[in-house]
Amino acid sequence: MTRTVYYTATTLDGFIASAEHSLDWLLTREADHEGAMGYKAFEKTVGSLVMGASTYEWVQRQGEDWAYDQPAWVLTHRQLTPYEGRDIRFTAADTDGELRALHVEMVAAAGDLGVWIVGGGPVAARFAEAGLLDEVVVSIAPVTLGAGMPLLPAHVELVTREVAQNGEFAVVRYDVVRPGGD
Description:
By secondary structure, this protein is of the alpha/beta class.
C-alpha cells in the first residue's frame, strides 16, 4: 500500500525555513544521510513527490539541476520555469476534490513506492486536512529561529512510531491519526 509521507526537517521551535525562506540553519548542521531515518534510505522509498511553489523556486535558486527522477507535482497558481526533460507537472488543485484526484495520480505514478510531500508546511497541511497524509518524519535541529515558515500549520493528531538520533538531529517518525480512525 502506498503511503504519503511528509519527510522534512524543522527547528526546535517548529520552522522549516526562516521568514526570508532561508535554510541556512539546516545546511550548516551535521547529519548522516545513511544513518538513522536518513535521506539515502528514505529516497529509495519514493515513487512520486509533490511540493509547493516556494519550495520549487528555492530549489531553482540553488542553481543546480533537478535532483529527482520520480514524477513530481508542484502546487501553484503561477507560471514557473520547468526543468528541461523532467517529469514535473504544475497544478493548482484548489479544492479538496481536485487534491484527492491529484493524489490518485501521484499514488498511481508511485507504484509500490511512496508519495513524498517535499514541502512546505502548507502543502503538508492541505494533504493532512484532506485525510491524505499517512506519516510525518521530521528531523529536529538544535536551533531556534523565533519566526519563519511553520512545520505543519494545521491541527494534526500523531502517534509516535520511532525516535532516533542522527548527527545533530533528533528524528521522529509519526503515523497520522485520521478523524474517525480510518
